[in-house]
Structure formats: structure tokens, C-alpha cells
Amino acid sequence: MAREWNDLFIIDGAVPATSEGTGQDAPEERRMGRFRRLRESLRKTRQALASEIQATLFEDLSDETWERLEEALIYADVGARTTAQVVEQLEREATGGEISGGEALTERLTELLAEIARTGDDHIDLRANPTVILVAGVNLTGKTTTVGKLAWHLRKELGRTVVLGAADTFRAAGVEQLELWARRAGVGFVKGPTGADPGSVAYDTIAQARRDGADVVIIDTAGRLHTQDDLMAELAKVRRVISKQIPEAPHETLLTVDATTGQNGLRQARLFSEAVDVSGLVLTKLDGTAKGGIALAIAHELGIPVKLIGVGEKLEDLRPFEPSEFARALVQA
Ligand SMILES: Nc1nc2c(ncn2[C@@H]2O[C@H](COP(=O)(O)OP(=O)(O)OP(=O)(O)O)[C@@H](O)[C@H]2O)c(=O)[nH]1
Ligand SMILES: [Mg+2]
């Protein structure tokens, strides 16, 4: 039921044996455990939504039912346009007599929400050696944290060797923070002198990965410069430097979006995706917000798949995104 790390990544050959396989639990139990944890992380959004669903889909259906359901979904940040589309469809099917009863309606709502969250290829292809992943996003959206967590999972779940590049050279603290994550994750780390050119740090990181035969390079970038234009120009430059070294790289450009910033986060994501070619979204901080519906709407609104979600501050609090699983965890009481 829960999407596993192996389902997210495209890898040549067999998946290397990792510590993951040595646990006591059967795979099915592990999946169930992960789903329970996801539900728990999304508790705030689910509580708000589930009570409204009980009060609408499980009662006599009327115009008010659909209005109230719309309001609840918009409150959870599913977005006005997306919500209208989903609720209209559900209403049509309910009045047409195709489905009836609270449970069936909730099941159908879950399906419709999952459908809108599906867009494009939501895999991360790791077949290039090394694979270069660039992580971008507005300041404080969770770039550095995501880089650290992703590196740890790549090592632990897939047995990959990883090198992190500290291309956020704007702040000394940013470099130190990434170094700490590299140590926690047990992966390689490359930095330049304070104020170094971010492109040259990216260059050095890839060069080291090639020397060491590392599988994956992850480049952390700055979230704030003097102006937004400077930031976009810098990102574009880092990308150019990377593709001079490896023409197909970066193979993946992930954009972090802070789920607690709701529709504002969506606007920022749109600006970024217009400036650089974003291949996947990482929705962070889904724990502790009642607005987790944004994860379902954002892919639909931007046409970019959500690939990962952040559900906490610890190493293990990053997971592959799977629309049906997520919609279920969000909607079903
Ligand atoms: N609860 C929660 N906190 C998170 C999550 N991801 C990141 N954070 C927190 O968000 C804050 C900012 O995270 P960073 O990784 O430093 O964000 P950043 O985008 O690198 O920030 P800048 O480098 O300043 O642009 C930190 O306090 C993280 O612990 C998450 O999924 N859940
Ligand atoms: Mg950072």
C-alpha cells in the first residue's frame, strides 16, 4: 500500500541488499507501518477534513453538502480550481445514481483527489553515473534538510554512495548545516571557501564524485540572495556549469515547497519553475499543518509531479509520494 523507496528510483540491475531487508517485519507489515506513520503525520489535515466529510457525505445530500465539502477541501488547501473540479465530478456521479452511501462517496472522493495529483513521470532516474540532483527553493523551505534526508535514504535503502555539494555559499552557516547533515547521513561532502562561486563548488563536487566513483551527487543551493532575479540567475549558472561537465546533468532538479505556506508556496514554485527546468517537487513540513491538501493540488496546478514529501525534521522523515496512499491518509477517518 505505501510506496517504497525502490518504487521511486529507477536503477540498473538488481537493487543492492541493504539494512532494510534485515528487519524482523514482513514487507507487508512494513508497508502498513509506514502508512500508519503517514496518517499520523497528516493528523491535523485529516481531523479537519474527516469531520466535514462525516457531516456531509454521510448525511442527506443537498446543495449545502457540496458547498460544505468544497469549503473543507479549500480550507485544507486543495485549491479552489482543483476543488471545484473534484466536487463537481463527485456531485455528478452522486446525483446520477452511480454511487451512494457515505463510504462509497468517500472512496470515490479519495480516487478523484489521487487522480488530479498524478502528473508526468514521478520517478527519479539513478542510472547515470554519477546522477546529479540539484535542489532549489525559496529560503527556509527545507532544501538543506531534504538534501541530508535524501542522501541518508539513498545510502540506507539503496546502498548508493553519495556526495553532497554546498553550493549555498551565501551564508557560512548554510555550509556548516549541510556538513552536519553529511556527517549524520554518512556520505561525502564538498565545500568551497566562504563566498565561493556556487558554480565552482558544484563543479568540484562532481569532479570528486567521479574520482571516487560515487553514484549520486546532490547539490544544495541558496534560498535567498539580494534579489529574486539574482537567485534565478545564480541557479541558471549553476545548471550551466553542471551541464558543461556532464551534458545530461542535472538529471533531476527538485524544488522544495513549504506546505505550511499554502497558496503562497504555490506561487513561489510557479516562479521557480518558469526560471529553471524543475523535474520534481518536494513538499516539506506536511506534519503539523492542517493544509496538507496542497500536496494534491500543486502537481495539478504546476504540471510537475510531487516526488517526495517531508513529514518531520529527522533523517527518516522523508518519503516517496504516492497520490492514492496520500489521498487515503488525508481523507479517510
Ligand atoms: N516539521 C518539519 N520541519 C522541517 C521539514 N523540513 C525542513 N524542516 C525545518 O525547516 C527549517 C528550514 O530548513 P532548511 O533545510 O534549513 O531550509 P533551507 O531551504 O535549506 O533554508 P535556507 O538555506 O536558509 O534557504 C529547519 O528548521 C528544518 O528543520 C519537515 O518536513 N517537517
Ligand atoms: Mg539551506
What would a concise description of this structure say?
The chain has 333 residues and is of the alpha/beta class. The protein has helices spanning 5-8, 27-41, 43-56, 63-75, 80-95, 102-116, 143-158, 172-185, 198-212, 228-245, 262-275, 294-302, 323-331; strands spanning 9-10, 124-125, 131-136, 162-167, 188-190, 216-221, 252-258, 280-284, 306-310, 318-320.
Proportion of residues in extended strands: 5-15%
Strand line-up in the sheet with most strands: 5-4-6-3-7-8-9-10
Order of helices and strands: HEHHHHHEEHEHEHEHEHEHEEH
Alpha plus pi helix count: 13
Unreliable stretches: 17-23
Give the overall silhouette.
elongated
Bound compounds, each kind once, are: guanosine-5'-triphosphate, magnesium ion
Structural class: alpha/beta
Largest sheet: 8 strands, mixed
- Helical fraction: 40-55%
How many individual β-strands?
10
| Gap from first CA to last CA | 17 Å
Gyration radius (Cα, Å) is 21 Å
Could you explain how this protein is built, in words?
This protein is an alpha/beta fold and 333 residues long. It has helices at 5-8, 27-41, 43-56, 63-75, 80-95, 102-116, 143-158, 172-185, 198-212, 228-245, 262-275, 294-302, 323-331; strands at residues 9-10, 124-125, 131-136, 162-167, 188-190, 216-221, 252-258, 280-284, 306-310, 318-320. Strand 4, helix 8 (172-185) and strand 5 (188-190) form a beta-alpha-beta unit. It is elongated, with a radius of gyration of 21 Å. Bound molecules: guanosine-5'-triphosphate and magnesium ion. Magnesium ion binds next to helix 7. Guanosine-5'-triphosphate (GTP) binds next to helix 7.
